[in-house]
Design goal:
Distance between the termini: 10 Å
Number of strands: 6
Shape: flat
Number of helices: 9
Helix content: 40-55%
Mean pLDDT: 74
Largest sheet: 6 strands, antiparallel
Structural class: alpha+beta
Low-confidence stretches: 2-66, 300-306
Order of helices and strands: HEEEEHHEHEHHHHH
Strand order of the largest sheet: 1-3-2-4-6-5
């Protein structure tokens, strides 16, 4: 499974859990400012659009909102308090690539609350867009434009999620094109992506009851991936690596089922601590090497690896 989980959850209300929450919020604030000052982020996508998609979009927060579309690559610039985004072909140097637009749920809040909502909703969608997040450079991170409270009052409640490299402009798309993949590579990535989608619904950390529901879904997803991998056709060189990974997936699924079956809330959290280290990246890396896929463990901004 090619998702990157949050740290293993603690019992709600514990000091360890509160410390993790504080660190998560700090990370959100830092990510929001990678490209633009956070208090002004929404202004990069506000203004009047030209019918020519390559023309500049600019404006201030109180003007009509215009969102970049999924798949757009763009360059950005700032003049006083007005930010501009210019759509450019992804084959040309660009500052970012839009991988999702999300409707912010809940009531309007302070900028740090909006940033947190944007970050969580954006980070959950990157894997779906790129298909193989292991292929991303280690300097690539999740960024977002979000509407401030004032802009939300005018009806714009959409956050624009984009991938950007901390080293500066990049050339080419971050999306893995299916047409460029061999049949065995595509089969593996599709099964991994199905598990990652369930993983991304982790309730951050939510109530114990919500975590139990998620853990049951995670166990079922891991079993489904294991069944799919076991049934697929693999080359003689890849089959032993896939078989070992299938065993690790089934071990992980069983550990999550044990957590779900725990009689008490404390028992759930204790058993979930046993489940978090699995499946190990070692098994994924071995399969990826055998399938000629990227095999460097991803170092994105979502949290520590398995």
């Amino acid at each position: 499974m090619s998702a990157i989980p949050p740290p293993a959850p603690s019992e709600p209300g514990s000091k360890r859990n509160q410390k993790r929450r504080n660190l998560a919020i700090a990370g959100v604030l830092a990510l929001g400012g990678v490209v633009l000052a956070m208090s002004l982020i929404s202004r990069a996508i506000a203004g009047d659009a030209d019918e020519n998609p390559d023309k500049r979009m600019s404006g201030a927060g109180d003007r009509s909102a215009v969102s970049l579309a999924v798949g757009d690559c763009f360059t950005s610039s700032q003049h006083k308090e007005v930010y501009s985004a210019v759509r450019v072909p992804c084959s040309r140097p660009h500052d970012g690539e839009v991988f999702a637009t999300v409707a912010l749920t809940g009531s309007s809040g302070a900028d740090d609350i909006l940033a947190k909502r944007s970050y969580h909703q954006c980070s959950d969608r990157l894997t779906d867009y790129v298909m193989d997040d292991w292929s991303l450079p280690h300097t690539m991170g999740v960024n977002y434009y979000y509407p401030t409270r004032e802009v939300q009052q005018s009806g714009n409640r959409t956050a624009t999620c984009f991938a950007a490299d901390t080293d500066g402009q990049t050339t080419g798309s971050v999306r893995e094109q299916e047409t460029g993949l061999a049949a065995d590579q595509l089969a593996f990535l599709r099964l991994e992506l199905a598990s990652a989608r369930v993983f991304k619904s982790y309730p951050h950390p939510g109530s114990t009851a919500a975590n139990r529901v998620w853990a049951a879904k995670m166990a079922a997803a891991l079993d489904h991936e294991a069944d799919g991998l076991n049934a697929a056709n693999w080359s003689p060189g890849a089959r032993p690596k896939v078989t070992a990974y299938v065993g690790e997936l089934r071990k992980s699924a069983e550990l999550w089922r044990k957590a779900v079956a725990a009689r008490s809330d404390n028992g759930y959290w204790a058993r979930s601590d046993d489940a978090w280290p699995h499946p190990s990246y070692t098994y994924q890396r071995d399969v990826r090497k055998a399938l000629r896929l990227a095999s460097d463990v991803p170092a994105t901004s979502f949290g520590p690896p398995f």
